Amino acid sequence: MLGGTTEASLLARSLATKNVDAIFSYAGRTETPVAQPLPTRIGGFGGIAGLVAYLKANAISHVVDATHPFAAQMSRNAIVACAEAGVPLLAFERAPWQAAEGDTWICLDSIEAAVAALPEAAARVFLAIGKQNLAPFAAKPQHHYLLRLVDPAPPPLPNCAIVVDRGPFSVENDIALMTQHKITHIVAKNAGGTGARAKLDAARALQIPVILIDRPSLPERKVADEVAKVLQWLGHQADRGV
Question: Which homologous superfamily does the CATH classification assign to the domain defined by 105-213?
């Protein structure tokens, strides 16, 4: 399993409970990844060729891609590598968020478009996009940026505040966070799921506009959105309530 999401951890627990022979793979982008009840490896594979070699060397019979919806390169590599190795691939993917009544969203297709969409006048922006894509926002140094990161890090932008925290988050805490920092705009990725949705519900409650970055497009692949469906694909019956 290629992991890194809340859903991946849920699936790992189900596989461990059923004594399924499985390996959990982390990309290694966080210093303290969540411990898993499965044998775990951390780090890249060395591109498509490295992943093909790993699948063959370890006699992998199935691959579940439960990476973050924005880990597009890993997902593309998995599609090609599994095809080359003749290994079935299933993406365990949570549905994207949909706007509801009271939401003020601007949906864009890139980080660069999100930067351009920020106002010219100084604003207080909650950058809820992780640590990988922050540099482009230096093009608008007039804004104060609030960053929420899993690991401590030096300030990546000249005018920013960093909060170190790990989800899932609550609406009440996110309302308090945004109120404390006087946030006027939010930039987020449409990751979907429940673990990080609180900021959007908090934005609705506080009437804060959200710039939401759409997911990258991927080649066609088989997708499941529930643990039970993944277990069924693997040939295991889901426990009631899973």
Answer: NAD(P)-binding Rossmann-like Domain (3.40.50.720)
Q: Which pLDDT score is estimated for 238?
A: 44
H-state helical runs in 88-150: 111-117
Which residue is it, tokens 């922006």? 125
Determine the angle formed by the axes of helices 6-17 and 227-234, rounding to 10 degrees.
Answer: 50
Q: Which two tokens stand for residue 68?
A: 């973050």
C-beta of residue 91 within 8 angstroms of C-beta of residue 222: yes
**pLDDT tens digits along 47-101:** 999 999 999 999 999 999 999 888 899 999 999 999 999 999 999 998 899 999 9
Whole-model pTM? 0.81
Contact between 16 and 230 under an 8 Å Cβ cutoff? The reply is no
Total residue length of the chain: 242
Which sign, positive or negative, has the C-alpha torsion 230, 231, 237, 242? negative
The answer to whether the beta carbons of residues 12 and 37 sit under 8 Å apart is yes
Task: Compute the Cα dihedral for 164, 170, 176, 178 and give only its sign.
Answer: positive
Q: What are the domain boundaries of the chain? A: 6-95+218-234, 105-213
